[in-house]
């Protein structure tokens, strides 16, 4: 479950029409959501408020140590218009599950950003400021997001803490999204780490006026017309300690035009370390998603298999009506460009859920169970981690998180 | 001042050290590159002990010690560690950073763990060690500087120079921390376990609860168990003592010894392989005096001698020395008494030659292995002196002594042997004060005495290192005062004997027969005669010393011998 501030940030991305899925960093988002979900640890209480569309506050109290907590503030010059009350928040937006990728979208014209204020042309540039103070550790997190242009996003993240080397670290990131491809440049003050990420999408180019998105039904389930193939790579290098990293990735995912079962396949490879990871995630039904991932290292022969599922529980008053719909209508492809948000986060396709169960288990003996849902006015997350191989600590961690927002 | 630094038990008991090292290495937060527990796979301290040089001793008592040593180690110890390391530098780099500001790479930080085996060898240490020992607080050992001079690190990745250099650097740094911080803690813990019974009891209870009772071979553990239980068969004790380690058991014995000084208890526990130099010097004093003491104590001493011979036959000379010293300690006030039965006294105090014969007999058995040539040389010299001495003495005694010495010429050597060896810890053989009894014993053993081959202290190196006796001769008057006491308790104690310098022994060899003859007469004759005999004896001794210093056999010790010859006579003449 997203924390409230992450929820507001994702709303900011959506409101600013920034596609977070079109990035190499989120190449395996579907798999990550299904297999690498975070289970709560200990008891934690969140109280949040979106007092105005531009300003949000959040307070957290936990039991790590004696008592710990944090308070955070967020300001955005773009009015975030999302439901903020915990009783009204669409659970599908808070809990990330299988990720339906939307069609690529051409970057906006710069002229669309220009508004005339007092007879002067002013470009609106959405920005977001976020700060979080952890107590009693006195660690400060800060985030600055700014849309430099319709195709550019600058984000600066900083952490300041006494226990950190040099008192803190700062990461600057410039993302360039051209739809067909995206590039990212990273720079960290910590040992001067430099990074580059790139993603290229085959097939449909949204910038090309002539190319038309093929909306015809695919001939067979493996017809690549209904899906998208993406390749990407990332590279990091630190000139100070002369170390680096490299990885490449491949993804094929079905698009909304696909009439069959949505699925996502990814393959990532780390050629330096010999790490090979392949995953297959499938949305088996409207409320069920399954995922498997196989990790293998060609140098050390270490391998692992992880399987996971998520199950949504919905109780909607219109369920009876939906059952009466013809199946062809239910899965009818929607015309392109219909959705108001480019991001899949805020696309409401069905009734809100009351709860979701996530589970994962790996061949190494690690298992996790998580339930997240709405109880009265509160959002509750209960989870536990198990370690089957260790007899002494079979029950690794148990946690409960309760959130309230207004 | 000398310390016995026993290296062998350390070599034998690496199991516990390994376990402790393992826990110490895993206790502190490990660098993120190490993703598994560090296992000490192999530990070999090697046969070469480190060289220790005493720089300063600040405090010295039976239950505490403080000193500074200069240590240098060039042995062939080696240590093998096993663990798993993270080979991806990005992974280790990111694991230490806050996730909020991390680039969060997709797969570039995926881990690659590699089993790693590191061997540390060619360890060269040199540094100043501060050692503080307290019975209550255990041993504290601190390195005043960084002791590591050089070290060779060989690992699985030796083929990659970059990794090799990195490992070398990292491990050297870690080892420095280990030596400066962890090692003192380990040693302290170990010492607490050994010396502090309460701590041991706690530990034992803990360990018993944790693990089922299993046979323990480890000497440290054994001693600890004994300390807690308080009961133990002597056989077990001997087994553990084979390692002359500084165990709880030994400490308890030391404590018992020092306690016994304050009581009148006749039993004193003996400690093997221990040399009390301070007591040895007092024993010398006693010896110096013994020649003039009354006959009674001498008889007693004679019996001591015999017993000591027995002892020497079975045990090493050091062992016998130890037992003798143990008896000394029990009665500090009676030191002179205990020392009275020295070899010098023996010969002179014995009224009859039979006792000598008996002694000789024992010697013969002992010394079969001795080189005959050496013995014969020494004997020939000594025999001549015997004659002269006997001439001065009464005829009868002279004849007897001659009859004893002439055939094999070993009498002096026998006496010498007696002086060196000490009797067992408790007086097993008690000879009656009556001379008859002694005679009977002696006569029974006479026949076998003849064929004896001589023995020479020269051959035995361990007893020759102590040049102390000279100092002891300074205080004859005191000995006289103490002498009356000696008569009360002579038998209870074992003979104190202490190692003597070769030179000195050579003197004694010569003197003993003379003195014995003289005193044989002296006991029958008047005081004047006795005094005269003393003078003669001293002269003879001097002459012998001179001769020996000139002789090839004694050349090695001639310088010392000359000085000894000069000094020795006054001690006896007074």
From TrEMBL, chain A:
**Which species does the entry assign this protein to?**
Cryoendolithus antarcticus
User: What GO CC annotations are associated with the protein?
Assistant: ERMES complex; SAM complex
Membrane topology (UniProt): Multi-pass membrane protein
The record's annotation in InterPro entries points to: Mdm10 (IPR027539)
Q: What is its main location?
A: mitochondrion
What is recorded about the domains? Answer: Lacks alpha-helical transmembrane segments, suggesting that it resides in the membrane via beta-sheet conformations similar to those predicted for other outer membrane proteins and porin.
- What protein name applies here? Mitochondrial distribution and morphology protein 10
Please state where this protein is localized: Mitochondrion outer membrane
Question: Its domain of life?
Answer: Eukaryota
Query: Which Gene Ontology BP annotations are present?
Result: establishment of mitochondrion localization; mitochondrial outer membrane translocase complex assembly; mitochondrion-endoplasmic reticulum membrane tethering; phospholipid transport; protein insertion into mitochondrial outer membrane
Q: Does the keyword Membrane apply?
A: yes
Function of the protein = Component of the ERMES/MDM complex, which serves as a molecular tether to connect the endoplasmic reticulum and mitochondria. Components of this complex are involved in the control of mitochondrial shape and protein biogenesis and may function in phospholipid exchange. MDM10 is involved in the late assembly steps of the general translocase of the mitochondrial outer membrane (TOM complex). Functions in the TOM40-specific route of the assembly of outer membrane beta-barrel proteins, including the association of TOM40 with the receptor TOM22 and small TOM proteins.
Kindly state the subunit structure of this protein: Component of the ER-mitochondria encounter structure (ERMES) or MDM complex, composed of MMM1, MDM10, MDM12 and MDM34. Associates with the mitochondrial outer membrane sorting assembly machinery SAM(core) complex.
Q: Which HAMAP family match?
A: Mdm10 (MF_03102)
Question: What PANTHER family is this protein classified in?
Answer: MITOCHONDRIAL DISTRIBUTION AND MORPHOLOGY PROTEIN 10 (PTHR28035)
**Family affiliation:** Belongs to the MDM10 family.
Keywords of the record, alphabetical order, are:
Membrane, Mitochondrion, Mitochondrion outer membrane, Transmembrane, Transmembrane beta strand
From TrEMBL, chain B:
Membrane-protein topology = Multi-pass membrane protein
Fetch the Pfam families from UniProt. Answer: Mdm34_N
Subcellular location per the Swiss-Prot or TrEMBL entry: Membrane; Mitochondrion outer membrane
In its UniProt record, a GO molecular function of this protein is:
lipid binding
Which residues lie in Basic and acidic residues bias regions? Answer: 543-558
A cellular component annotation (GO) from this entry: ERMES complex
* Residue spans of biased composition, Polar residues class: 333-342, 402-411
State if Transport is listed as a keyword: yes
Basic residues: compositionally biased ranges: 351-365
Domain SMP-LTD, chain residue ranges per copy: 1-205
Task: Name the residue ranges with Low complexity bias.
Answer: 316-330, 380-394, 443-454, 565-574
- Transmembrane: is it a keyword of this entry? yes
Picking any one GO biological process from the record gives: mitochondrion-endoplasmic reticulum membrane tethering
Instruction: Quote the InterPro entries the UniProt record gives.
Output: MDM34, MDM34_N, SMP_LBD
Keywords (A to Z) from UniProt: Lipid transport, Lipid-binding, Membrane, Mitochondrion, Mitochondrion outer membrane, Transmembrane, Transmembrane beta strand, Transport
Stretches for region Disordered: 316-502, 543-574
CDD domains membership: SMP_Mdm34 (cd21673)
Describe the task this protein carries out. Component of the ERMES/MDM complex, which serves as a molecular tether to connect the endoplasmic reticulum (ER) and mitochondria. Components of this complex are involved in the control of mitochondrial shape and protein biogenesis, and function in nonvesicular lipid trafficking between the ER and mitochondria. MDM34 is required for the interaction of the ER-resident membrane protein MMM1 and the outer mitochondrial membrane-resident beta-barrel protein MDM10.
Q: Which family does it belong to?
A: Belongs to the MDM34 family.
- Quaternary organization: Component of the ER-mitochondria encounter structure (ERMES) or MDM complex, composed of MMM1, MDM10, MDM12 and MDM34.
Q: What is known of its domains?
A: Lacks alpha-helical transmembrane segments, suggesting that it resides in the membrane via beta-sheet conformations similar to those predicted for other outer membrane proteins and porin.
Q: What is this protein called?
A: Mitochondrial distribution and morphology protein 34
């Amino acid at each position: 479950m997203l924390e409230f501030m992450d929820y507001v940030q994702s709303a900011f991305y959506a409101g600013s029409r920034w596609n977070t899925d079109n990035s190499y960093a989120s190449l395996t988002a579907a798999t990550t959501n299904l297999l690498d979900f975070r289970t709560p640890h200990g008891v934690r209480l969140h109280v949040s408020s979106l007092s105005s569309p531009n300003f949000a506050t959040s307070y957290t109290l936990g039991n790590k140590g004696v008592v710990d907590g944090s308070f955070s503030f967020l300001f955005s010059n773009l009015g975030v218009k999302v439901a903020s009350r915990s009783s009204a928040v669409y659970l599908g937006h808070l809990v990330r599950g299988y990720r339906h990728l939307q069609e690529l979208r051409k970057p906006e014209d710069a002229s669309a950003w220009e508004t005339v204020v007092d007879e002067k042309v002013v470009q609106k540039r959405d920005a977001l400021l976020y700060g979080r103070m952890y107590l009693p550790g006195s660690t400060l997190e800060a985030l600055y997001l700014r849309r430099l242009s319709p195709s550019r996003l600058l984000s600066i993240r900083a952490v300041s803490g006494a226990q950190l080397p040099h008192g803190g670290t700062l990461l600057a990131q410039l993302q360039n999204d051209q739809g067909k491809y995206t590039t990212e440049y990273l720079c960290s003050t910590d040992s001067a780490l430099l990074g580059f990420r790139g993603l290229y999408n085959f097939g449909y180019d949204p910038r090309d006026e002539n190319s038309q998105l093929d909306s015809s039904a695919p001939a067979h389930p493996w017809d690549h017309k209904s899906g998208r193939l993406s390749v990407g790579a990332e590279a990091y290098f630190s000139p100070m300690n002369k170390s680096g990293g490299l990885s490449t990735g491949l993804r094929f995912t079905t698009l909304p035009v696909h009439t069959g079962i949505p699925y996502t396949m990814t393959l990532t490879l780390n050629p330096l370390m010999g790490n090979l990871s392949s995953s297959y995630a499938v949305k088996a039904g409207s409320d069920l998603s399954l995922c498997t991932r196989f990790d293998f290292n060609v140098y050390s022969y270490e391998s692992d298999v992880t399987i996971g599922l998520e199950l949504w529980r919905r109780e909607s008053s219109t369920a009876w009506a939906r059952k009466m719909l013809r199946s062809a209508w239910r899965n009818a492809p929607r015309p392109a460009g219909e959705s108001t948000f480019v991001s899949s986060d805020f696309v409401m396709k069905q009734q809100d859920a009351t709860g979701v169960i996530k589970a994962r288990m790996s061949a190494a003996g690690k298992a996790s169970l998580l339930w997240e849902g709405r109880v009265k006015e509160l959002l509750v997350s209960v989870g536990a981690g198990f370690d089957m191989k260790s007899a002494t600590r079979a029950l690794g961690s148990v946690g409960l998180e309760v959130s309230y927002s207004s | 001042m000398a310390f016995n630094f026993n290296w062998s038990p350390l070599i034998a008991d690496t199991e516990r050290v390994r376990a402790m090292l393992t826990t110490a290495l895993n206790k502190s937060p490990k660098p993120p590159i190490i993703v598994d527990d560090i296992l000490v796979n192999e530990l070999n301290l090697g046969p070469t002990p480190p060289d220790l040089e005493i720089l300063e001793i600040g405090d010295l008592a039976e239950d505490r010690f403080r000193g500074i040593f200069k240590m240098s180690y060039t042995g062939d110890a080696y240590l093998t560690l096993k663990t798993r390391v993270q080979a991806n530098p990005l992974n280790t780099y990111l694991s230490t950073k806050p996730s909020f500001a991390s680039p969060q790479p997709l797969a570039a930080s995926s881990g690659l763990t590699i089993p790693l085996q590191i061997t540390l060898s060619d360890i060269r240490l040199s540094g100043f060690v501060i050692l503080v020992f307290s019975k209550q607080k255990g041993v504290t050992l601190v390195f005043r500087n960084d002791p590591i001079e050089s070290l060779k690190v060989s690992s699985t990745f030796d083929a990659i120079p970059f990794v090799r250099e990195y490992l070398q650097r990292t491990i050297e740094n870690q080892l420095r921390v280990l030596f400066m911080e962890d090692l003192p803690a380990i040693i302290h813990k170990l010492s607490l376990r050994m010396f502090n019974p309460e701590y041991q009891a706690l530990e034992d209870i803990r360990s018993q609860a944790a693990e089922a009772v299993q046979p323990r071979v480890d000497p440290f553990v054994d001693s600890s168990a004994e300390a807690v239980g308080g009961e133990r068969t002597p056989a077990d004790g001997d087994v553990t003592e084979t390692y002359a380690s500084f165990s709880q058991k030994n400490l308890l014995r030391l404590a018992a010894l020092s306690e016994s000084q304050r009581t009148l208890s006749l039993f004193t526990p003996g400690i093997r392989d221990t040399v009390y130099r301070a007591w040895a010097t007092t024993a010398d004093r006693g010896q110096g005096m013994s020649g003039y003491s009354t006959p009674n104590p001498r008889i007693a001493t004679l019996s001591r001698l015999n017993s000591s011979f027995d002892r020497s036959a079975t045990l090493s000379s050091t062992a016998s020395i130890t037992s003798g010293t143990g008896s000394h300690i029990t009665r500090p006030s009676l030191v002179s008494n205990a020392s009275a039965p020295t070899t010098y006294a023996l010969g002179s105090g014995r009224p009859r030659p039979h006792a000598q014969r008996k002694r000789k007999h024992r010697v013969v058995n002992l010394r079969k292995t001795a080189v005959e040539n050496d013995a014969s040389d020494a004997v020939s010299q000594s025999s001549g002196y015997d004659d002269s001495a006997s001439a001065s003495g009464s005829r009868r005694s002279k004849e007897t002594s001659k009859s004893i010495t002439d055939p094999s010429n070993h009498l002096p050597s026998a006496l010498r042997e007696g002086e060196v060896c000490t009797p067992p810890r408790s007086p097993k053989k008690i000879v009656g004060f009556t001379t008859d009894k002694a005679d009977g014993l002696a006569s029974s053993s006479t026949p076998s005495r003849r064929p004896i081959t001589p023995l020479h202290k020269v051959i035995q190196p361990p007893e020759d290192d102590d040049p102390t006796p000279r100092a002891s001769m300074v205080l004859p008057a005191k000995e006289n005062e103490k002498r009356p006491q000696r008569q009360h308790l002579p038998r209870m104690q074992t003979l104190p004997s202490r190692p003597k310098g070769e030179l000195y022994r050579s003197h004694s060899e010569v003197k003993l027969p003379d003195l014995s003859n003289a005193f044989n007469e002296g006991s029958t004759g008047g005081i004047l005669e006795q005094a005269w005999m003393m003078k003669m004896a001293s002269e003879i001794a001097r002459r012998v010393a001179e001769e020996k210093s000139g002789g090839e056999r004694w050349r090695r010790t001639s310088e010392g011998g000359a000085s000894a010859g000069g000094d020795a006579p006054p001690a006896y003449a007074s």
